[in-house]
């Protein structure tokens, strides 16, 4: 076993679970990556991974959970504030709509941030984008904490919008930056660290929610995020920008080579870097096509006469499908409403539901380490398919247990926990980066931005609909996750290629063979 650098606990986990070299291919760097001769990560890539985890996945977990445990007290605050202003309390359906609207500010603002990310990364680089979006986190968290003393529930909306906008930008930036810089032998594990960090963010927020879920202390739950954002800013200052970003913005080959060497932990004159930099410098015919017509041609279902274009288009849509499949497992939506599900649907007491939600968050952390250790060994497809099968079983048991009643509420808790944990270990982790492995690198930034936006739009529809619908029809609201999960399981089983240890051109050739198209992709 190689010993990772001192600052690289996360990276050492990846090293333990990944092979020392990736499988051979026709071009070791055809997807703008190279095969690393060993699995020991460099100090630079470890520092980058930690910084991206704090600014990306951790923030997403914190935002998604921050309203969960104190939701009753925040609802009461909104109710009281409206009454203080107009002398009338809103009806329960109206209050449910206000509460759902506050929750979906996260995915709505995230969409804006995800579409903004492509422009920002081109304009300011990966590093500049990360620093600017981190600084945007600060007013978002502070304004949220000031809502109660200012007696203005609108500050919760403004703060959540700013916080989520920044996270939307960082979610795209983190995926692109790590794929551009991590060696392929640890790329999957490094990218899967985002899900681990999201679990840590969720657990920290849930832990703070235990003492802070009171009528007077709930505003404090937002503030612990501030010092962590400042740590991320400091870490970004000590790592170089992505070599792809350097070439895009400055055209400085020597500087890009130096940055890539630091991330790979090799000498600047290492031949490992040659194919990477050449591929970044020269665009092929497919990439030139995207420059002329824009990235939207990938998602255009009409007018693609070229077989190669059809293959890339299907690859992009497969990335969309995997991301949306995760949304319709219900794991993400139900995690945001975990206290509500356990309290309102499973009939646990509020204290028991709050504690149960915290326990699930605690167990979720080791679950997210499963893909970190094994995603580059087992592969992406097995983890996705296995988690979807267990998802369907868990949903069936959860619905049945709730319908039976209080005598099976502990069975409902177990099945609910399994639903969240298996997706953290499988589809939830892999969906973060799988789509980025399906398209050529020069299309990566814009494609990831659009894919993330489509995923967030789907999330808005699901999360906005679930809470008011669950208040009306109860357990039957969970059926909105069962049928889509079954359909996505069949589609993914039939259509999605394996990407582990393969460059993007090998993946595209696999898709072309599945479509019986006689085309071939090469760097």
TrEMBL record:
This is Major facilitator superfamily (MFS) profile domain-containing protein. It is a multi-pass membrane protein. GO terms for molecular function: hexose transmembrane transporter activity. Signal peptide: none annotated. Residues 49-500 form the Major facilitator superfamily (MFS) profile domain. It comes from Pristionchus mayeri. GO terms for cellular component: membrane. The chain crosses the membrane at residues 97-117, 129-147, 217-239, 315-337, 357-376, 383-404, 410-431, 443-467, 473-496. The lineage of its organism: Eukaryota, Metazoa, Ecdysozoa, Nematoda, Chromadorea. Its main location: membrane.
């Amino acid at each position: 076993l190689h010993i990772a650098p001192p600052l690289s606990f996360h990276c050492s986990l990846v090293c333990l679970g990944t092979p020392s070299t990736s499988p051979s291919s026709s071009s070791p760097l055809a997807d703008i990556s190279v095969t690393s001769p060993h699995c020991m990560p460099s100090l630079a890539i470890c520092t980058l991974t930690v910084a991206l985890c704090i600014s990306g996945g951790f923030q997403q977990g914190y935002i998604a959970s921050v309203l969960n445990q104190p939701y009753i007290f925040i609802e009461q605050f909104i109710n009281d504030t409206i009454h203080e202003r107009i002398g009338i309390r809103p009806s329960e359906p109206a209050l449910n709509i206000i509460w759902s609207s506050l929750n979906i500010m996260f995915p709505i603002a995230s969409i804006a941030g995800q579409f903004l990310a492509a422009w920002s990364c081109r304009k300011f680089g990966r590093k500049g984008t990360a620093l600017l979006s981190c600084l945007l986190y600060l007013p978002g968290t502070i304004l949220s904490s000031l809502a109660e003393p200012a007696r203005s529930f609108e500050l919760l909306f403004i703060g959540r919008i700013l916080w989520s906008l920044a996270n939307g930008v960082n979610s795209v930036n983190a995926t692109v930056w790590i794929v551009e810089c991590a060696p392929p032998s640890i790329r999957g594990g490094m990218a899967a660290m985002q899900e681990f960090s999201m679990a840590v963010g969720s657990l920290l927020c849930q832990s703070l929610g235990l003492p802070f879920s009171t009528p007077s202390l709930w505003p404090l739950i937002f503030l612990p995020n501030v010092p962590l954002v400042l740590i991320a800013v400091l870490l970004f200052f000590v790592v170089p920008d992505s070599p792809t970003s350097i070439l895009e913005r400055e055209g400085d080959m020597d500087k890009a080579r130096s940055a890539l060497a630091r991330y790979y932990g090799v000498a600047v004159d290492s031949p490992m870097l040659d194919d990477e930099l050449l591929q970044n410098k020269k665009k092929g015919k497919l990439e030139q096509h995207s420059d002329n017509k824009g990235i939207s041609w990938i998602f255009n279902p009409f007018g693609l006469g070229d077989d190669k274009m059809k293959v890339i288009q299907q690859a992009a849509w497969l990335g969309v499908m995997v991301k949306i499949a995760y949304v319709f497992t219900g794991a993400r939506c139900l995690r945001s409403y975990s206290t509500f599900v356990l309290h309102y649907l499973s009939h646990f007491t509020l204290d028991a539901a709050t504690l149960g939600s915290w326990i699930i968050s605690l167990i979720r952390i080791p679950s997210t380490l499963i893909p970190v250790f094994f995603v580059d060994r087992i592969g992406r497809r097995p983890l996705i398919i296995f988690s979807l099968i267990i998802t369907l079983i868990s949903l069936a048991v959860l619905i049945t247990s709730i319908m039976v009643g209080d005598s099976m509420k502990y069975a409902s808790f177990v099945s609910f926990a399994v639903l969240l944990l298996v997706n953290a270990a499988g589809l939830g982790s892999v969906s973060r980066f799988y789509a980025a492995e399906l398209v050529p690198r020069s299309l990566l930034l814009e494609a990831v931005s659009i894919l993330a936006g489509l995923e967030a739009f789907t999330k808005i529809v699901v999360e906005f609909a679930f809470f008011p619908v669950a208040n009306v029809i109860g357990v039957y609201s969970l059926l909105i996750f069962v049928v889509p999960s079954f359909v996505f399981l069949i589609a993914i089983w039939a259509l999605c290629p394996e990407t582990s240890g393969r460059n993007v051109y090998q993946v595209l050739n696999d898709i072309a063979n599945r479509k019986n198209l006689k085309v071939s992709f090469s760097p």
